[in-house]
Amino acid sequence: MDRHSSHDFSAKWARGVLGEVVVSAKEVHDRVGELGAQITQDYATRPPLLVGVLKGAINFMADLMRTIELPVEVDFMAVSSYGAATKTSGVVRIVKDLDVDLLDRDVLIVEDVVDSGLTLNYLRQYLGARSPASLEVCALLLKEGEQRVEQSLKYVGFSIPADFVVGYGLDVNERYRNLDAIYTYVGEA
Ligand code: IMP
Ligand code: MG
Questions:
Q1: pTM of the prediction?
Q2: Structural domain harbouring 112
Q3: pLDDT at site 10
Q4: pLDDT tens digits for 3-37?
Q5: Ligand 1 atom with the shortest distance to the CA of 112
Q6: Active site residue 2
Q7: Is residue 7 part of a domain?
Q8: Is 116 part of any domain?
Q9: Which residue of 115, 153, 175 sits with most ligand 1 atoms within 8 Å of its CB, as the best mutation to test the pocket?
Q10: Less Cβ crowding at N or C end of the chain, within 10 Å?
Q11: Which of 34, 30, 4 has its CA nearest to residue 138?
Q12: Strand, coil or helix: what is 162?
């Protein structure tokens, strides 16, 4: 993977606040296809319930589910871990819970990024208590460096440096989710 594909920078409207391209739109597209193929193979006999974590996972979920060739079901949770800050507080609040029962379901959590791991750790315990048949994680991004909570992630799209990033669902104050690539965030000059 060529992580520094700065040549394909195209988001002119956001140029003032973005740093370099961390994962290009093509890299995202190709990797999502690979993950979908792997999930299709791994879950062939037991189509999973995909649980997207709003809002950051919306782009990833929308693309990933279309690459899985199984009758998957899809649901969403909304959690709030950061508020408007860019550093984790460790406090996770459930803003929207699931609509479906998890009993004996093969659940695959679809997450945008694992940074400290606190959000995912909380979600795993919260959902694990509802007796799913299995509970695994598909994270698009894993921040390099030490996760504060040990994680076993079944699927990871990309390992990236610990810088704050935006795009492809990831935001700063609700903005930049609509970028097709993932960029470092530099902020207003
Ligand atoms: P963690 O609890 O520290 O692992 O953080 C997980 C959550 O924080 C993610 O689901 C994101 O919503 C948010 N987050 C972490 N890193 C970033 C980033 O670089 N950009 C945008 N959101 C982030
Ligand atoms: Mg966020």
A1: 0.91
A2: 26-161
A3: 76
A4: 444 445 578 999 899 999 999 999 999 999 999 99
A5: 10
A6: no
A7: no
A8: yes
A9: 115
A10: C
A11: 34
A12: coil
Residues with CB under 6 A from ligand 1: 53, 56, 81-82, 88, 111-120, 164-166, 170
Amino acid in position 37: A
- What element of type H or E holds 127? helix 118-128
The neighbour count for residue 122, using CB atoms within 10 Å, is: 18
Give, using CA atoms, the residue closest to atom 9 of ligand 1: 113
Length of the chain: 189
Span 72-110, pLDDT tens digits: 999 999 988 655 555 566 668 899 999 899 999 999 999
156 in any annotated domain: yes
Q: Which of 158, 174, 187 is nearest to 22 (CA)?
A: 158
Q: Please answer whether residues 75 and 65 qualify as being in contact, where contact means their C-beta atoms are separated by less than 8 angstroms.
A: no
Answer yes or no: is 174 within a domain: no
Number of structural domains in the chain: 1
